[in-house]
Each structure stands twice: as C-alpha cells, then as structure tokens.
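To: structure desk
From: M.T.
Subject: fold request, one chain
Message: Could you run this one when you get a chance? Sequence is below, nothing fancy, just the single chain.
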Amino acid sequence: MRDEQLLRYSRHILLPEIGIEGQEQFLRSHVLILGLGGLGSPAAMYLAASGVGHLSLVDFDRVELTNLQRQIAHTHARLGRTKVDSAREQLLALNPELTIDIHEARATPDTLEHWLDGVDVVIDAVDNFATRQLLNQACLAKSIPWVSAGAIGLDAQITVFDPRVADSPCYACLFAPEPAPPEASCASMGVLAPLVGVVGAMQALEALKLIGLEGRGLVGRLLMLNAKELRWSEMRVKRSATCPVCSVRSV
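Reply: Done. Structure tokens follow.
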C-alpha cells in the first residue's frame, strides 16, 4: 500500500477489525452494483470512499429531475445523462484510484453471467421482483454472495444471501418465484429520501463484511425498518428444503 493510500484509509487501518490486511482486501475486491438509484447511490459512494478497488455499475436508465430527491450520486447538471455515466463521474471525483466498469443495459440471464465474472459481492439495488429472481439464480450458479434491500414509503428491509454458506437461504426461499407479487414503485407510492440513504449505506457495510471486515452479517436474517417510528424488527430466514431454486440446484 502506498503512502497516499495509508493516509487516505488511515481511519480504517486504525480499526482492529480491518487493519492494513483488511484494507488491502478491500482494494483487491470487485463489487457489482445493480441499480444506481436511491439505494445504489449511497451504497456505491460508501464503497468507493472505503477503497473497494473495482466497481461495476449497472443501470439502463437516465437521470431525471424526480430522481434528485434521493439519488445522491447524481446532480442537476447531469440531468439526461445515463445513470451509470453520472455515477461513475461522481465516484471518480470522490476516489480517482478506482477501476469502474459501466453497463447501460437491463439484467438478463446472459448479461448477468457476463457481468458476474470476477465479482466478489453484488449489491442488489433494483426495484423489481423479476430481476431479483434472475440475480438469485445467477449468484447461486457462480457462488457469489449478494446484499439485497428494498424501500418504499417509510419502510425498508435488508438481508444477505450467500451461496458459499451451506445453510444460507436463497431469495426464492424467502420470496417464491410464483406467483409474482404486485409491484409497488416510488413513482406511485413515494419514498422518504433519508430512508434509502440509511439502507443503502447498510448495504455497503454488509458488502464490506463479506470481503474483509470482521463482524456478524445478515445471512439468514431479514432486518425491517419502520422509519416513521424508527423501529427495527428482525425475522429469521431458513433455507427451504422445498425451495424451487436452491433445493433443486443442490440435488
């Protein structure tokens, strides 16, 4: 690690849970962030600031005025630009040493298989059920852990799925692929700006635990936040022996 890096990351290095070895692991790591909206923005910015050396950004959308209430990786000056390009500019301004790949496309089985090559952790910051089911299958196939979160209105949730852990549930253990639930969106229901900031930052925290930070993670635990009352609740999630996805894969 160079002198400049030792200074930049000194507050991490001082932590016994990280130290120089942990920070070097961050620098060697590759995280894919799927979605650069309200959750993906703070997650990406904290991972960049923390020194995760390689980030892959995926989003097919462009920056709109309604995004700026909560999507802090974007600015008024970048309205109309692709979100991946806007986010890359923001992250490199924060930490110019990063390697950043961008993919302006929708997630499909084929694109996910390509994007996940060499990735250590995935941040799920998308807003639809079908994409999460595709991501679940892709991460299972490549044994890549992923941090999933969602937020709507004044409520949010976050958990971790890790195929490397024998008893880790997969997304389909928690939310069966069929029947698909009705979709709810920020455009129709709204979402509180600081809420996605809190949960997106937690996604970055869980990703760091998966790649070098000592600490108990959220595998098998679904945390739910009621922001109106600032109350957390936790639900234990077990791997399902009859899961239509991971139980079939393990046979």
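Reply (cont.): Residues 3-250 form a domain with the Rossmann fold fold (CATH 3.40.50.720). Let me know if you need anything else for the meeting.
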